[in-house]
Structures are given as C-alpha cells and as structure tokens.
Amino acid sequence: MVKTDSAISTFSNSKMADPSFATSRGSNGLAQAEQVRVISRDEHEAAAASLAEAFRYDEVAQYFVKTPDTESWTLDQKWEVHLQIMRCIVLAHCISGLALTVGPNHAAVALWMPPGKNMDDQKTMLLSGLSELNKQLSEEGNCRFIEFMQLLHQTKTEVLGKYDENSWYLVYIGTRKEARGQGYARMLIDHVTRQADAEGHMCYLESSDGKNPAIYRRFGFTTVQNIKLTRGSKPVELDIMVRHPGSREASCDARTIAHHGQTAETA
User: Fold this and answer.
1) Could you tell me the CA-to-CA distances from 258 to 4, 16, 80, 125, 191 in Å, in that order?
2) Predicted model pTM
3) Tens digit of pLDDT for each residue in 135-177?
C-alpha cells in the first residue's frame, strides 16, 4: 500500500554511497551533507509523527477517520487515530521493510518494501500493532481500511503479475511542510531506484494526488491504471505507477510531491 504525500523539491544532483549517500549544498545556509539513513525501531514514533503531519490533509488519510460514525469525534481524537495508523505502518517497515529518513528531526520519511518482503505476515502484524488497528478505528473506518488494503493488494498483484514478488514498493513518502524545497524526497527516491536499476528490479507506487504523476514521471514512473475507494460520499482516486529498471529522465524541475505514495504540493 502506498501513499505519497512527500515533498519533492529543489532537485539537485545527488551521489550515492553504500548504505547512504550525501549531497553537497551550496551557500544557502543548509548543511553541506545530508545523508539518507535507515530508521530504527526505537525512533519509529518520531518518524511516524513526521509522516502523519505530511499527510494531515490527505484524502486517503481522511478517508479512514472522517466517516459518518465519527462525526462526534473531536479533531484530537481523529488525529490520534491517524497518528496511530502511521506508527503501525512505520514500525511494520522497520521490522520487515525499509524505512528511510533524511534531514533533521525526520524531516522526510520514505517507507519502501523490498523485493520478496511484505508486512502481511502474522509476526509483523502483531509486533507493529496493525492487527489491533480495528480497535482504534470506527466501524465504518475499519471497513474502509479493509477495502483499502484489499484493493491495493489486488491491484498490485494484477499490475505486476510475475514481477510482484520481485519489485520495490514505495508505500509512503512524506516531507514536513517546513522542510520542503530541500530536495529530500528526491534523495529518498533516488536512494532506492538506483539500487533497483543496478539489480534490474521494477518499482511500484500508488499516488492519491492528481498533481503527482507528472512529477513521478521525472523519476521514470509511468501511470498504468487508476483505482477508486468508493465507500465515501465521493470516490477517492489513486494513480497506479510503475518504473522499469533504468527508466530515468535526465532533468528535473523544482517541485513538491505528496505521496500516500498521498498528497502533493508544487512549489
């Protein structure tokens, strides 16, 4: 499952080192080296807080908490459930996937599922708290979350076919509003797509903001399908995008992406 509410902006040439890469900054007052690094389990709550903030107004995020049976909930109650969803998903990627961050205070976060991995096994579901989310969501919110998970799983399997188990899956990528414009999202995408290219693997994502596909195409992604969540008062659409090994356009403009994966802004 992927949401993309990331900020991809101020694209700059980046260099990759194993296991992280740094990019030099000019005389703009920023640090001369920012490194992509792996998020540990101990810091998953802080990373989740950044993603939750990045996706605060995302349509997919709202889809689970803004339901007819939560009209009596306070904004704080809805925020806590939204935050808890992010905590569980980030921890699941710390356990079974690849959770990355760059910038100060988890300024930008990306959750990738590597080839041959998933977060649907019983152990990961239990340890991450995903198996208990139904107790946090309202009855309708739970139905919508199940609809969401099933639709994403089915679509990914159908689109990728025999490559499904051998691809990189960008589940979430988000940048805090105050950190946008620094090129962090680009670094988080390049960090994995360069490896995917070297290994000959496809990449896959879902985007819930109509402005994002044009930006993702600059990273070699192509829209192959559009799906809809339909339990709400209006459908919530997601664009399905894939990237073949070596697919990369030479130039990029300064932009901001929001990925569920969910919400995007252009700078």
Assistant:
1) 5, 23, 21, 26, 18
2) 0.83
3) 999 999 999 999 999 999 999 999 999 999 999 999 999 999 9
Length of the chain: 267
If we measure between CA atoms, which residue out of 175, 241, 242, 156 comes closest to residue 207? 241
How far, CA to CA in Å, does 27 sit from each of 24, 30, 64? 10, 7, 43
Q: How far apart are CA 28 and CA 82, in angstroms?
A: 35
The dihedrals phi and psi of 243, each to the nearest 5 degrees, come to -135, 125
The encoded tokens of residue 45 equal 């709550």
